[in-house]
């Protein structure tokens, strides 16, 4: 596949926060290994003045998704904590970047970057039509963001070399990739971009 980036394209980096790294509260195996690859995408977009959207889980301390509060997850990405910070080596461009916080109120969870956020309106007001999505976790927030984008009418590319899944059940990540493809997402890797 050969892909030329245009001003209708945006990069979406999903939840590259400490708590999803191998040292964090809700570890995604090898999540830290994709930082260099994500940085390559970030540079490719940023150097062309194309926008980069960083989603982050940004939960209150008693969030509904946490064990003991009705959910299945250990407490993670609590607002303002070190665990909620982005991986220290992730490049955050000065310009044309947006931070999208989700899961911010106690009684609602959001796996999709579109759920309860301004992401769709920010993309639409810039005329963005194609989304390139990477980050973690493939089988949760990446999957829901990709399918959310498809449902909103975007063309969506899954960055297969810049995403990692948590695999709570063996095979979840592979099934998530299949589900995204069946929903219309196109799997691409860095070498597919014409740079
Ligand atoms: C996520 C589980 C709970 C994710 C967020 O970013 O994929 N997974 N909260
Ligand atoms: Zn969460």
Annotate the secondary structure layout.
Layout (H helix, E strand, L loop, with lengths): L2 E2 L4 E6 L20 H12 L5 E6 L39 E6 L16 H7 L4 E7 L1 H14 L3 E10 L7 H11 L3 E3 L4 E2 L1
Parallel strand pairs: 1-8, 2-3, 2-5, 3-4, 5-6, 6-7
Helix pairs in contact: 3-4
Bound molecules: pyrazine-2-carboxylic acid (VGL) and zinc ion (ZN).
Task: Please describe what this structure looks like.
Belongs to the isochorismatase family. It comes from Hydrogenobacter hydrogenophilus. InterPro entries: Isochorismatase-like_dom (IPR000868), Isochorismatase-like_sf (IPR036380), Isochorismatase_Nicotinamidase (IPR052347). This is nicotinamidase. By secondary structure, the protein is α/β, with parallel strands linked by helices. The protein has four helices and eight strands; from the N terminus they run ββαββαβαβαββ. The strands form two sheets. It has a six-stranded parallel beta sheet, sandwiched between helices. Strands 1-8 form a two-stranded parallel sheet. The radius of gyration is 16 Å and the shape is globular. The model has no long low-confidence stretch (mean pLDDT 98). Zinc ion binds at residues 57, 59, 65, 76-77, 103. Zinc ion is lined by residues 57, 59, 65, 76-77, 103.
* Mean pLDDT rating: 98
For the record, the CATH class is: Alpha Beta
Number of helices: 4
- Whole-Å distance between the termini? 13 Å
> Would you give the CATH topology?
Rossmann fold
Integer-rounded radius of gyration: 16 Å
InterPro entries: Isochorismatase-like_dom, Isochorismatase-like_sf, Isochorismatase_Nicotinamidase
Keywords: Hydrolase, Metal-binding, Pyridine nucleotide biosynthesis
EC number: 3.5.1.19
Family: Belongs to the isochorismatase family.
